[in-house]
Write a sequence for this structure.
């Protein structure tokens, strides 16, 4: 469906703007797919923003339960952050490998990304399990409700990302670097990097600022 | 094994839903049996259910909306009758049933009538107007449609299995919390909206990408037909607002299912945060609905006035301004909730500001008509009716946007009259205008004008007879959602409103008759040229109905009103003989059952979640995931239409068109 | 209409896609991004835990650092630039950010005012007992 650009039709400026840039026609599939996914990511970020807003509203409502400063462990959060950052990097390496169709580095990059993601999820899960076992589960207070939902929502996204990552590897294994698979890989990379951006907001707002409340 | 589900879920003691449900079931089974016996099943499956053709999907959206319109309309009839008889008595609907009816009515009308209707029209028309062969994501488009249908299905299942919400169409807590709504009603409500919400989001992403990235050669932004602009704005709003709905309902569900405390009165939860969040979606939502309607009126008014749209650029600007400002006014839905005067004042002023771009649009339509040769066809009647109705509806909107006035009018029938005024006069009139305007494009024959005009007049008059009394009753202090009342002064107004409802029913009968009569007379009404209205934009440049690939060649656009310019050009050079162009193979996306199968699993999952049948939930999720993996695995996602076939199809159309031009040129 | 200038177009990049670079340059981009992000992260955690800086400035500093880090991610990992081939991507991003800002800012503003005028039940009871 790609069209080559044709330029220049003289009578195309009804409002006398002076410059007429002729639209070249439908964009390539690669651009269309990635752009659609980009729009999806923005909508996902709006979804997150509601949970952030809820957290901001409810952070003080501890109902005589624990405050943020009493339950957050900054060391763990720092480790989680580094894990996700490194995974963003390795994900970038995997996308470069996919672009140059190098299977070895692609698998390696994806596998490391997967391991880092799983390590992140393990730490988060242990944090949650630990809180629940101390009686500080999400039903304890509105603050904990907001905390578990926001951080858990990010965790669910990471889990979905890991699942997607594995099917991406399987697809490359079974079908090779086909054009449609490369497009999906591009979307996956966008997804993974976006999750990292959301995590920056999570650790800053929830853990660091949240400890101050 | 089956969670909370057992025989007590079927309301054997309530004849109305049971009989209604049985009738619907019989109707569905009857249609199914007819389809199977007549051997239409393979056709349906291959040509419609698995279709990824945007035109087919658009038609299915509109069909869904029309069927659900009958359901929502039945609810409306029942409520109007109840309120006209329930003076100092219980009427014929017990409170818990009445409450379900008004909740279902609102939910259905917004989510399963208005939304699918406008999304269907956008799907059908926008790729044609942009001069391209399909939307950006054809298979996802089908997924989106079927998920919307899933939501509608779940709402209707609630009629016979369990109950629907009794909370109104926005399910405010604490009423919608577990304490006060322990049944499955709110769960039906929330899960069907979650699932159809995903479908709507998919449709939104798809259409935004289509408009921004798939335009034919030379279709610069400022040459797009107005409907494409309003589609862009409306779908940007979908993409930005529907995630808010998803998040809010997710919070409500977490409260209900896992004992969270977002909106509870205990443990520090905040009920008012629900109003805040839901309206942050809710106000943009009303513009999601009405912007496409604005686009339809722009197309219709310009076509039937035979003039380019007046003030095209100001119209674009107004559309985009509405798109952004509609995100800054949501508090006007809860002025009375206790925010201080400063907050109320700012949101009140912002709300009034929205009326400015809307006013710009009205003037543009009026000036487009001014000095034009107006043809009062059915779509044009709907448009003029809209202008009259929407101005008054908008004025009452500005009235309730004044906080002190709203303290009196909030939650009264005055408010009910306001939003029906803008939604019926704006969205529904727009949908009907678009329906009659583009029907020939979709099916290849026009609708019978006489019945269309009758439908318009009955709707127009019926609307005023039904809703003007509600303003008065509201000013007399009648609050909304009353199952019965004791104030004598309200009673006559309720009677008048019921009569109006009768007129509206006649209008619906006219619409159905129009459809039946037109299908019967379709040969006489056939549109052979593809341009029945002397149109101006590219959808009229192809045959009716268009071939799967829409255009044999991507049209080359040189200015606004692309097709009009082409026609002028062709008339000027009518004697020149054009050599036949070189036809090429065309690749089109292959049909896929992904959408349907995915929606099947979504229905299973939704139903299981409502009834706490956990194993079935897992089954549904796994099924949906597996469907996507299978889809990702397929090797051929496109098929080729050979050049010879393209040529054969296109030549027929070119012939018809040539005769049209030579006839018009001869005048 | 001789004052028209025709500009050739057709150059458009997908979000996340880079201009043509060699593999080495691309890897370098990610390395720079990683290092910057790690530095900013470290600063955030340091500031949050220290009493070496004026305490009331900490929240502001944390927010600024977070925004800076998001910017780093956008530029080095998502390859968002200000170039004309990225206009559509940036506009979509700007629209999304505007909505995020309106939703979060609006909610916090509205809810804090509601709480001022109509405190939640437990505060209400405390106030009146
Ligand atoms: C000039 C433009 C408009 C203004 C200033 C306006 C203002 C308002 C205000 C202030 C309310 C809340 C009143 C109350 O709850 O007491 C309201 C309710 C409503 N409006 Fe409008 N409105 C406008 C246009 C529209 C349009 C175009 C639509 C739909 C297409 C619409 C649909 C609704 C709905 C559905 C509700 C109430 C929903 C409910 O409470 O259940 N409005 N409007
Ligand atoms: Cu509103």
């Amino acid at each position: 469906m790609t069209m080559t650009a044709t330029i220049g039709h003289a009578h195309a400026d009804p409002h006398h703007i002076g410059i007429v840039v002729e639209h070249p026609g439908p964009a390539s599939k690669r651009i269309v797919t990635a752009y659609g996914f980009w729009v999806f990511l923005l909508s996902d970020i709006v979804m997150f923003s509601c949970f952030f807003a809820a957290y901001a509203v409810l952070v003080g409502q501890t109902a005589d339960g624990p405050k943020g400063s009493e339950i957050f462990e900054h060391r763990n959060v720092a480790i989680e952050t580094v894990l996700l950052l490194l995974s963003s990097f390795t994900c970038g390496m995997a996308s470069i490998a996919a672009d140059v169709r190098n299977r070895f580095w692609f698998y390696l990059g994806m596998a490391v990304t997967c391991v880092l993601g799983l390590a992140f999820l393990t730490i988060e899960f242990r944090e949650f399990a630990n809180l629940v076992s101390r009686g500080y589960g999400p039903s304890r207070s509105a603050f904990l409700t907001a905390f578990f939902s926001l951080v858990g929502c990010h965790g669910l996204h990471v889990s979905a990302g890991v699942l997607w990552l594995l099917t991406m590897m399987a697809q490359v294994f079974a079908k090779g670097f086909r054009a449609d698979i490369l497009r999906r890989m591009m979307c996956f990379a966008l997804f993974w990097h976006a999750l990292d951006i959301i995590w920056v907001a999570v650790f800053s707002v929830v853990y660091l600022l949240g400890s101050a409340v | 094994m089956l969670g909370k589900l057992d025989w007590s879920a079927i309301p054997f003691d309530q004849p109305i839903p049971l009989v209604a449900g049985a009738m619907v079931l019989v109707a569905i089974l009857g249609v199914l049996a007819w389809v199977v016996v007549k051997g239409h099943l393979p056709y349906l499956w291959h040509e419609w259910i698995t279709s990824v053709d945007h035109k087919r999907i658009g038609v299915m959206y509109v069909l869904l909306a029309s069927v659900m319109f009958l359901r929502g309309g039945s609810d409306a009839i029942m409520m109007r009758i109840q309120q006209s008889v329930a003076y100092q008595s219980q009427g014929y609907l017990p409170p818990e049933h009445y409450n379900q009816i008004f909740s279902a009515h609102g939910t259905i009308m917004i989510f399963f009538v208005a939304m699918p209707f406008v999304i269907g029209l956008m799907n059908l028309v926008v790729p044609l107007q942009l001069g391209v062969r399909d939307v950006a994501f054809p298979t996802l488009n089908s997924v989106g449609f079927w998920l919307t249908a899933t939501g509608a299905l779940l709402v209707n299942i609630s009629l016979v299995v369990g109950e629907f919400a009794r909370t109104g169409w926005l399910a405010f807590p604490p009423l919608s919390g577990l304490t006060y709504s322990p049944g499955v009603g709110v769960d039906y409500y929330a899960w069907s909206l979650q699932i159809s919400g995903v479908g709507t989001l998919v449709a939104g992403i798809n259409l935004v990408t289509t408009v921004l990235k798939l335009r034919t050669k030379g279709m610069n932004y400022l040459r797009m037909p107005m409907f494409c602009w309003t589609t862009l704005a409306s779908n940007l709003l979908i993409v930005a607002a529907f995630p808010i709905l998803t998040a809010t309902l997710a919070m409500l569900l977490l409260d209900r299912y896992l004992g969270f405390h977002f909106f509870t009165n205990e443990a520090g939860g905040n009920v008012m945060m629900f109003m805040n969040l839901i309206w942050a979606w809710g106000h943009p939502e009303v513009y999601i609905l009405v912007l496409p309607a604005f686009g339809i009126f722009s197309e219709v008014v310009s076509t039937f006035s035979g003039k380019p749209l007046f003030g095209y650029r100001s119209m674009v600007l107004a559309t985009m301004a509405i798109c952004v400002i509609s995100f800054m006014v949501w508090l006007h839905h809860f002025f009375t909730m206790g925010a201080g005067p400063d907050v109320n004042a700012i949101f009140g002023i912002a709300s009034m500001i929205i009326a400015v771009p809307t006013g710009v649009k009205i003037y543009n339509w009026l000036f487009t008509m001014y000095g034009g040769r107006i043809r009062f066809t059915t779509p044009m009647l709907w448009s003029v009716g809209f202008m009259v109705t929407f101005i008054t509806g908008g004025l009452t909107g500005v009235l309730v946007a004044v906080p002190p006035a709203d303290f009196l009018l909030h939650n009264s029938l005055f408010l009910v009259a306001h939003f029906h005024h803008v939604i019926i006069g704006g969205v529904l009139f727009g949908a009907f205008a678009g329906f009659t305007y583009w029907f020939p494009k979709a099916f290849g024959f026009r609708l019978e004008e006489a019945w269309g005009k009758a439908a318009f007049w009955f709707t127009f008059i019926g609307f005023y007879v039904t809703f003007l009394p509600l303003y008065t009753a509201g000013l007399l202090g009648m609050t909304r959602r009353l199952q019965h009342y004791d104030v004598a002064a309200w009673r006559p107004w309720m009677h008048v409103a019921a009569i109006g409802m009768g007129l509206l029913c006649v209008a619906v009968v006219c619409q159905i008759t129009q459809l039946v009569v037109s299908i019967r007379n379709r040969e006489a009404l056939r549109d052979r040229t593809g341009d029945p209205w002397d149109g101006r934009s590219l959808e009229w440049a192809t045959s009716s109905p268009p071939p799967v690939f829409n255009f044999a060649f991507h049209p080359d656009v040189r200015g606004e009103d692309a097709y009009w310019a082409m026609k002028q050009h062709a008339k000027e050079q009518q004697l020149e003989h054009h050599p036949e162009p070189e036809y090429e193979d065309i690749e089109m996306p292959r049909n896929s059952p992904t959408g349907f199968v995915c929606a099947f699993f979504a229905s299973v999952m939704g139903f299981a979640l409502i009834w706490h049948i956990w194993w079935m939930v897992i089954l549904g999720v796994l099924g949906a995931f597996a469907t996507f993996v299978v889809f990702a695995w397929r090797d051929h996602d496109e098929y080729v239409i050979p050049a010879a076939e393209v040529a054969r199809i296109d030549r027929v159309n070119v012939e018809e068109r040539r005769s049209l031009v030579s006839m018009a040129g001869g005048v | 209409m001789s004052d028209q200038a025709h500009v050739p177009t057709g150059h458009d990049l997908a979000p996340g896609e880079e201009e043509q670079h060699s593999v080495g340059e691309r890897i370098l981009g990610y390395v720079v991004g990683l290092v910057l992000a790690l530095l900013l992260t470290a600063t955030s955690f340091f500031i949050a835990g220290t009493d070496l800086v004026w305490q009331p400035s900490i929240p502001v500093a944390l927010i600024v650092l977070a925004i800076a880090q998001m910017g780093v991610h956008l530029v080095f990992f998502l390859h968002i630039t200000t170039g004309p081939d990225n206009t559509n991507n940036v506009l979509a991003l700007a629209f999304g950010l505007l909505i995020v800002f309106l939703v979060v800012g609006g909610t916090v503003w509205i809810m804090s005012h509601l709480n001022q005028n109509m405190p939640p039940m437990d505060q209400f009871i405390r106030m009146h007992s």
